[in-house]
Structures are given as C-alpha cells and as structure tokens.
Design a protein that fits this description.
Keywords: Membrane, Transmembrane, Transmembrane helix. By secondary structure, the protein is of the alpha+beta class. Helix content is 48%, strand content 23%. The chain folds into three domains: 100 residues, 2-Layer Sandwich (Alpha-Beta Plaits), CATH 3.30.70; 84 residues, Multidrug efflux transporter AcrB TolC docking domain, DN and DC subdomains (2-Layer Sandwich); 100 residues, Multidrug efflux transporter AcrB transmembrane fold (Up-down Bundle). β6 and β7 form a beta hairpin.
Length: 323
C-alpha cells in the first residue's frame, strides 16, 4: 500500500515548487502515538532547571513502568556548552582552529583501559578524562609553546548556555515541559495508563515546591467510554429483546431463550478473544458493538420464525431447523 501511494505521488513531484521538500510516505504505527501526555510547569525553576529535573528524575521513573515503550520530551531546554574562539588570539599563538577541535574531541572522552582480574571477579578499568564542569573546558591544553602549555581559556570563551529550542510547550500560558508516553506494541493501554498515574502520584511527593504536573491527554478515556457504551448497548439490547418477544409472542419460554442468546454469545466471543491473544481496543469494541445490534435483530426474527413453524404442527427440532 505504501508503494502504491509513492507511485501515485511520483508523477506530480516535478510540479512542486522549489521550496517544497520531497514528500515522505511512511506506514502508520499505532504504537508510535502517545497514549498519555503530561505537562510539568514550575513557578520557582527556570526552563533549563525544569528540563533537567524532568529529564533526570521523572523520565527514568516513567520508563520503568511496565508496558511503557518510550518517553519523549517536548519543549525541554537542552544544555549546551558554547566555545567562542577568538581568531586574533589563535593567530598570536600560532594555533589553528583544527588543533582546538581535535583537543575537544580527544580530551573530552572516557577511554576503556582493560580489565583487572581479582580472584573470582573482573573489574573494568576506565580512564576518566571527560570534562565534568563547564569551566573545565577552559583548562584543556591545546598546544605547547616554548615548553609552556596554552590553555583553551587563553584563546576562547566558554559559556554554559542552552541549545536552541526545537519545540515549545505551554500550559495556561506559561512555558512548560511536556512528556509524551508511548506504550510497547503488546501492552494494554488502560493498564499502562493506570500504572503511570500511580507512578506520578509517588513522584509528586518527591517533587520540589512550586513544581506541578497536569495530565493533558489520556487515550484510555476513549477506550473506557467505548467499554461503557458496549455494556450499555448489551443491557439495553437484552431488555428490549426480552420485552419484544414477551409482548409479541406471549411465550415465557421464547423470552428466556432469546434473553440467553446475548450473554452466551458474548461469553463465547470474549473467550475466543482471550484464546487467540487479541486485546480489547477501539477496533474490537466497535466490532462487538455492531455485532450485538445484529445479534439482537436476528435473535428476535429467528425465534419468531421458529414459533411460527411450531404453530404449523412441526416438532421443535424441525421447527428450529426450518426457522
């Protein structure tokens, strides 16, 4: 299907204006849509502080919830270390920009140095040369002149800033950080959402003063509403079917038979759903709701026809087969 769409689009791509990018055709994956969105806002934290707290304290806990496939951040301010090189000072020391770049690449790393065997255990050794504090970048040695080291801070300015925002999130007109929660492909939406609510309540007690969260999207609400609609349809259908048979046929036996048709069929359907590993989702609920309506109509019509054949003098088995 995706290839068919690409084939249809290909002939008209040449007619696009130059500033229009080539269309991307992708298959829709329901698991790639968030089942829940939560916004965090604070009146005591900057956006950078809020982003750091949510990224380090909230997101890791949400990822541990059973059934959660991924957690995405929107509107977060990512930390960025900017190094502004001064060309005049580089020239005065006879240093090229390549030396600065290579120093940053080679010095700000963690290098494995092998392992140490100790009786029944094995220890991994790493050389820690990664810069921890932003000011540490300024102390990196980029060259040596006449036996004296030239530090990065002598030819550049190091700034601890934030990266350009790729997305923005607002809640009640205030800047916020949004968290989108995606479920794994085989997880149940309602169960994952319920467990996420429980995790958020536990995290709420640990949040600093002034930090609040609000669930702004919850896809389980639609599923819960659909389940209620199906249950209401079953109850209303069963009551109406029983009343119609009782009023028009006047037979208590026919009323009982018609009334039992719905729960027996529903029980069998749910058994097969469980046996074949299907889940209760929007599609299965829609199919169940439609089939219940057809079942009620057919049960009344078939039972009325069986009664008619019985009144013609046929035995019950023959009347049931002919009806």
């Amino acid at each position: 299907a995706a290839q068919d769409v690409r084939d249809k689009i290909a002939p008209v791509i040449a007619q696009f204006r130059d500033e229009i990018d080539t269309p991307i055709v992708q298959r829709y994956d329901p698991s790639s849509s968030p089942i829940m969105s939560v916004v965090f806002e604070s009146n005591s934290m900057s956006l950078a502080q809020l982003s750091s707290y949510v990224d380090k304290k909230i997101v890791p806990q949400l990822k541990t919830v059973s059934g959660v496939g991924n957690v995405n951040l929107l509107g977060d301010a990512k930390r960025q270390i900017r190094i502004k090189v001064h060309p005049e000072q580089l020239q005065s020391y006879g240093i090229g920009i390549d030396q600065v770049i290579n120093t940053l690449k080679n010095e700000n790393i963690e290098v494995p140095a092998g392992t140490l065997q100790q009786k029944n255990s094995e220890l991994v050794v790493q050389i820690q040369s990664k810069v921890i504090h932003p000011l540490g970048f300024g102390d990196l040695v980029i060259a040596n002149k006449n036996g004296s080291p030239i530090f990065l801070k002598q030819v550049a300015t190091v700034e601890d800033t934030q990266a350009e925002l790729q997305s923005s999130a607002f809640y009640n007109g205030r800047t916020a950080v949004s968290v989108d929660i995606l479920k794994s492909s085989d997880a149940n939406v309602i169960q994952v959402v319920d467990k996420t609510y429980q995790t958020l309540e536990k995290l709420k007690a640990q949040m600093p003063a002034g930090l609040n969260y609000k669930v702004v999207a919850d896809s389980s609400k639609g599923i819960r509403a659909s389940i209620k609609d199906v249950v209401r349809t079953i109850i209303e259908g069963a009551v109406l079917a029983v009343l119609i048979v009782l009023l028009f046929l006047g037979s208590f036996r026919s009323t009982v038979i018609t009334g039992l048709t719905l729960p027996i069929t529903l029980l069998g359907t749910l058994t097969f759903i469980w046996a074949f590993g299907f889940s209760i989702n929007m599609m299965t609920l829609l199919a169940l709701s439609l089939s219940i309506g057809l079942l009620i109509d057919d049960a009344i019509v078939v039972r009325e026809n069986i009664v008619r054949h019985t009144e013609l003098g046929k035995d019950h088995v023959t009347a049931a087969l002919d009806g």
